[in-house]
Amino acid sequence: MAFENWKADSRGSVNEDSDILETTAIAADKQMASRIDALKVRLTGVSLDGFDIAGQQQTLSGDTLIIRRAPENALAIADKLPYPTRDLENSRAEPMLQTQDPAIIRLAQRLVGSEHDARVVAERLNRWVYDSIGDRITVGVPNALQVLRSRTGDCNEHTQLFVALARSVGLPARIASGLAYVDGKFYYHAWPEVLLRDWVAVDPTFGQFPADAAHLRFVVGGLGRQTELLRLMGNLRIDVLATNAGVR
After folding, report:
1. Which candidate, 218, 211, 191, 176, places its Cα nearest to that of 35?
2. In a structure prediction context, what are the per-residue pLDDT tens digits for the chain, which is 248 residues long?
């Protein structure tokens, strides 16, 4: 319904094969390198209250946000999968995350095999989703089982399927959303976080493990939380202050 209303708006036109979010992308004031291990930006134009900005690889001080790519020691964990009691909330099935569906379980078990190292499992799942799901902008509520059948989707579908596969083998995973930098612009984007030593961002849409520092997380959770991103659109300004070695 929201998509149809948006198409009818005289300010823009779009079809299902074009990137809806192109019109809401935020131009970066500086060109950045293709690999970003650390990023420092200033966020202005909106109140940051209520967003899931601080924590894990992100540090917020006033309106200044520093993001760092997860270091190697954040990926290593002694506990073997399935974790017995770690974060049950992000380990269970949900209506669009069919972790108990036989097709999801069969695929996850085939990809994981006898491996119980959480880092290895997460990396295998990330690689398979990146290699196997065709990039196509879709309209609708992302559904992990449907993505598995169609093998197509945008960042939401990649993320939904990854989270379902991870949870089905006992690896806690959750959905993060915000902005990611691509070719001079920050685009609205979704990616998973997996629980290793701490929560670590990965990106099966871009094929990044772990995700680079050009991922600015604003919310954690499904569609109910992602609607919070609407108050950023048209209002948020991002000033790039430093990258990589220049981040202090």
Report:
1. 211
2. 554 554 455 444 444 444 456 677 898 888 887 789 999 999 999 999 999 999 999 999 999 999 999 999 999 888 889 887 778 888 888 888 999 999 999 999 999 999 999 999 999 999 999 999 998 877 677 899 999 999 999 999 999 999 999 999 999 999 999 999 998 999 999 999 999 999 999 999 999 999 999 999 999 998 888 889 988 988 999 999 999 989 98
Number of domains present in the structure of the chain: 1
Helix (H) or strand (E) holding 4: helix 2-8
Residue carrying the six token digits 């196997």: 132
Whole-angstrom distance, CA of residue 149 vs CA of residue 134:
12
Within a domain: residue 210?
yes
Whole-model pTM? 0.89
Domain membership of residue 188 (yes or no) is no
66: β partners: 40, 59
Domain-embedded: residue 98: no
Strand 173-182 relative to strand 185-195: parallel, antiparallel, unpaired?
A: antiparallel
Element (H, E) at 124: helix 118-132
Tokens of 160: 């939904």
Query: What distance in Å separates the CA atoms of residue 54 and residue 121, rounded to the nearest whole number?
Result: 27
Give the integer Cα–Cα distance in Å for 103 and 16: 27
Give the whole-angstrom CA distance, residue 35 versus residue 38.
Answer: 9
Domain span at residue 53 reads: 21-72+175-182+194-244
- How many Å apart are CA 143 and CA 140, to the nearest integer? 9
